[in-house]
Amino acid sequence: MKGESVKIKIDDKKRQIIIDRYFRIGGVVVPNQYCEDCGSVIIYYDQYDNEFCPYCNKWLSAPCGDASCTYCRVRPNEPLEIKTLADTIHENIE
User: Fold this and answer.
1) Which residues face 50 on adjacent strands?
2) How far apart are CA 30 and CA 43, in angstroms?
C-alpha cells in the first residue's frame, strides 16, 4: 500500500488529525474506506465538509457548485496546501 509513507496521528479527544507532523486539521479517519488510487485511509475534513486522500492530496468529490456554500467557496485546490509567509501576508492585504 503506497499510503503507508504518510504519517497520520489521531487525537480523538480534540477531533484532530495530524499529518506528517505538519498539518493539524479538524476531522476524522473514515472507517473502512480507502483511496481507490493508492489505498491510503480517507480523512473527513471538518472545515470543508469533504473527504480526501492525505497521500494523493486530493479531494474525493468536486465542489458542490453553489456559490453561497460556506464550505466549497473557500475550499483550496488541494486539501493539504502549504502556505508560505508571503501567501499569508497577501491574504491579509486583500
Assistant:
1) 45
2) 6
